[in-house]
Amino acid sequence: MLDDAHRIADATVSAISAAAVTKSDTADIFHTRALYIGGIGDVKVTMVSGDVVTFSTVQAGSVLPIQVTRVWSTGTGATNIVALY
Prior knowledge:
The chain is built from no helices and 7 strands. By secondary structure, the protein is mainly beta. The protein is globular and about 30 Å long.
């Protein structure tokens, strides 16, 4: 569990920017506030804490309120993922 000093986004504040996610097993993205999932599938991410987690069978149109630094290519079948900042 991260303490308050490690939090980078206030979960009560809505996103102010968005960008399409390029899935990668090597490249990080800027810390997200959430991910929008456009097409159903698994989503493998690296959380800001460093934990690697796979969210199984995420439904199209879902918003995952998670702070991540990477969306993995291997292990992510979901499509049309948008990072919310």
